[in-house]
Design brief:
The complex is a heterodimer of chains A (about 160) and B (about 550). Helices cover about 25% and strands about 25% of the residues of chain A. With about 160 residues, chain A is α/β, with parallel strands linked by helices. Chain A has a single domain, classed as Aldolase class I (TIM Barrel, Alpha-Beta Barrel), CATH 3.20.20.70. In chain A, strand 1 and strand 2 form a beta hairpin. Chain B folds into 4 domains: about 100 residues, Alpha-Beta Plaits; about 160 residues, Sulfite Reductase Hemoprotein, domain 1, CATH 3.30.413; about 80 residues, no CATH class; about 140 residues, Sulfite Reductase Hemoprotein, domain 1. Classes of the chains: A alpha/beta (about 160), B alpha+beta (about 550). Chains A and B meet through helix 3, helix 4 and strand 9 of A and helix 1, helix 2 and helix 6 of B.
């Protein structure tokens, strides 16, 4: 069972990953390559239900520009401790591409020590890797109540230095 | 005189203090989780590095940030205190103006950081693949040739880059340097970003922006991508550079991950186009630098309460030893009646950059009495009292001499830069400290040193180049040859005097006990070849490396 941290709680994932079982029922998250095999068919489905797309670290968010309004979720992969490309993707999707749906951080790199920063660049849900302590991960969102940079609002921040 | 000054430097407000306190609490928890086995080596490594903690050859090493090299006396005293209470009573100042403790215990690091936070200090982002401590000119604010004081902008960059939500997991480390004089005393073109402060025609502050400098395995000199960036756009433009790098920088090979490799592979023109496009696209939602915020930070750097004085000839009629110290270890000040005084950490027999807790205490006291309670850390691993009255120079010299901090060799061959080398660092291939001592012994005659004049030796124990060997007039690089320590020698490197160049290898490497002798043969070639008053580096440039190459190995032909 995948555990998703979202809105102050950790719960079982409501989404299905493409190919993980035979039904492929909604709501479903598909890899970018799968979406592009038949974009029209997936968008038709998206209009009826809810569709999510998963981006690997080397897949740019701009490649979703044409389908963005139809997506309910974008999952961005953080494959390991160090790969931080997704931080820029979060910022771009929110600030430049105007994505309003759920932005989810997934992969082994989504650890409690990064969650605060991920939330600040616009991620609102986090798939916790196995072994990650859910209580601590929730607490990590409240680790800081002061920040220097502008960014997505995180509850509890009381002071900020620079503004957009 | 007691320490009654509010030093002319940035003082934390509630936000800054809350941030470092919360950071200490976070790291205390991370350390606890690691020691309890809840955090893997790999995960802990990522967070401890971002808090300046390395695991070294003998023990952990903690690198404490000294933002742009500026310390208040109470901060230097605290560095002495933590070195005494948690280490072996000494520390090592680095070329990036930080202080390293070589023997702290991992479990006491949170306590060290908690003490540092009480004097507005930290070790945040002094290592790891993130934006590092911003560096600057050690004469910032007092140099006669300075356009404007760069330190307020360094402080703004420090704050903006701290715990940056987007740029804390970069492909590789990222170093920013700000300078404001043509002489470039901070090696800005060897940084990932070098900012040169300028004024435009209307007198507005801005920066020329250089990118892609760096040493290490692939030394490259930074290139200009923008001639004038107006100050209000500073953070927006830095974010554009960082975003292009964060997205496109290589992550598959640690040796190709610095921004210099990206700039080189795209070509500086295409890199510039990408940055400019990114800047235009992101400007609106990028952090603005409001005039009120700039003024707030600038006000902290208002000059100290200088007295109205005349310049005097402080050396006149004094003993030759003082005159030599005055000439080599003090520098001109923009305010009449004052001079800047080096606190020399290059005494022969000592490791370059090392300083004991007792010395730190004494220098802090001295700064309170004679230099407005402030101390600067220099790129060349010395300290500096920036604002000493000329009529105080003689007693200051006497005190520094008693502390062993007045050897009159600043700017000479034995004022060399050296990384900690094999004795401490787990990356090193060869020792640097014993070689430094050999050189000090061989060049122990001050008259001979003075005759050689301005010669910069820079030495690194491995190709990571923490000792900046590529840009030494004489560069020394330790290499491992079948388990033995050998040294490769380069000539003609430079980072200051408005001239940045990489040195050229003169030939095969030499064994450890031959380094000092080889250096001597090299400078003897200079003595033979120089024209009247010509500096070492200028002779090398004029005659090329051939005569040096021919004679450096005269007695060592079998070196392979």
């Amino acid at each position: 069972m995948r555990r998703i941290l979202k809105r102050h709680e950790v719960a079982a994932d409501q989404w299905r990953l493409f190919g993980e079982d035979a039904s492929d029922a909604d709501p479903i998250i598909v890899p970018l390559a799968e979406l592009r095999k038949d974009t029209e068919a997936w968008l038709t489905r998206a209009r009826k239900g809810r569709l999510g797309v998963r981006l690997a670290p080397a897949e740019s968010p701009e490649s979703l520009a044409d389908v963005l309004p139809h997506l309910a979720l974008i999952a961005i992969e953080f494959p390991n401790v160090g790969d931080g490309r997704g931080f820029s993707y979060g910022r771009l999707l929110r600030d430049r591409l105007g994505f309003k749906g759920e932005l989810r951080a997934v992969g082994d790199g989504v650890k409690q020590d990064k969650i605060f920063l991920l939330a600040r660049v616009g991620f609102e849900s986090f798939e916790l890797p196995s072994g990650e302590n859910a209580t601590e991960a929730l607490a990590a969102l409240k680790r800081y109540d002061v920040v220097y940079q502008p960014g997505a609002p995180v509850e509890g921040i009381r002071r900020q230095r620079f503004f957009a | 005189m007691a320490a009654l000054y509010s030093p002319s430097m940035y003082q934390y407000d509630g936000l800054d203090q809350a941030f470092v306190d919360q950071r200490v609490a976070e790291f205390r928890d991370q350390t606890r989780r690691f020691l309890a086995g809840e955090l893997s080596e790999d995960e802990f490594k990522a967070v401890r590095l971002r808090n300046g903690l390395y695991i070294q050859r003998h023990a952990p090493m903690l690198r404490i940030a000294v933002p742009y090299g500026l310390l208040a006396s109470r901060q230097l005293r605290m560095l002495g205190e933590v070195a005494r209470d948690f280490d072996r009573g000494y520390g090592h100042f680095t070329t990036r103006q930080n202080l390293q403790l070589n023997w702290p215990k991992l479990e006491s690091v949170p306590d060290i950081l908690e003490r540092l936070a009480t004097v507005q200090m930290h070790s945040i982002q002094t290592s790891g693949n993130c934006i590092r401590n911003v560096t600057s000119d050690h004469l910032a604010g007092i140099a006669k040739d300075e356009i404007d004081d760069p330190r307020p902008y360094c402080e703004i960059i420090r704050q903006w880059s701290t715990h940056h939500p987007e740029f804390t997991y970069l492909p590789r480390k990222f170093k920013i340097c700000v300078t404001a004089s043509a002489e470039d005393r901070a090696a800005s073109l060897t940084h990932d970003i070098g900012l040169h402060l300028k004024h435009d025609a209307r007198g507005e502050v801005g920066f020329e922006v250089f990118v892609g400098g760096g040493l290490g395995r692939q030394p490259i000199i930074g290139q200009s991508i923008r001639e004038f960036l107006p100050l209000p756009e500073l953070l927006a433009y830095l974010e554009a550079i960082l975003r292009v790098y964060n997205r496109l920088g290589r992550r598959d090979n640690i040796h190709k991950a610095r921004i210099k490799v990206l700039v080189k592979s795209l070509g500086v023109e295409r890199f510039r186009e990408q940055v400019e496009a990114e800047w235009q696209a992101s400007r609106e939602l990028a952090p603005k630098l409001e005039a009120a915020e700039v003024d707030r930070v600038r006000a902290h750097f208002d000059p100290p309460a200088y007295e109205t004085l005349q310049n005097i000839d402080a050396a006149a009629g004094r003993e030759p030893e003082f005159q030599a110290w005055y000439r080599y270890n003090t520098r001109e000040h923009k305010v009449p009646g004052y001079r800047a005084v080096f606190v020399n950490l290059k005494r022969h027999g000592e490791n370059p950059g090392d300083v004991t807790s007792a010395q730190m205490d004494a220098v802090a006291d001295l700064a309170d009495r004679v230099s407005f309670g402030m101390i600067r850390v220099c790129h060349n691993q010395n300290l500096l009292l920036g604002d000493v009255r000329q009529d105080d120079l003689f007693p200051v010299w006497q005190e520094l001499r008693a502390l062993g901090l007045a050897m009159p060799n600043i700017g000479t061959l034995t004022d060399m830069i050296a990384c900690p080398g094999l004795d401490f660092c787990s990356l090193a291939n060869a020792g640097t400290l014993t070689v430094a001592k050999q050189i000090q012994q061989r060049f122990d005659d001050l008259d001979y040193l003075y005759d050689l004049g301005d010669v910069e030796i820079k030495m690194s124990g491995c190709m990571n180049a923490c000792g900046h060997h590529h840009v030494g007039h004489i560069g020394i690089l330790g290499v491992d040859k079948h388990g033995e320590e050998w040294y490769q020698i380069t000539l003609g490197g430079s980072v200051n005097g408005g001239y940045t160049a990489l040195g050229e290898v003169i030939g095969p490497s030499v064994p450890k006990n031959e380094v000092a002798a080889t250096v001597e043969r090299i400078v003897e070639v200079y003595r033979a070849e120089r024209s009247d008053g010509e500096r070492f580096i200028d002779t090398v440039r004029r005659v090329g490396i051939k005569p040096f190459k021919e004679r450096a190995y005269a007695t060592y032909p079998e070196a392979a």
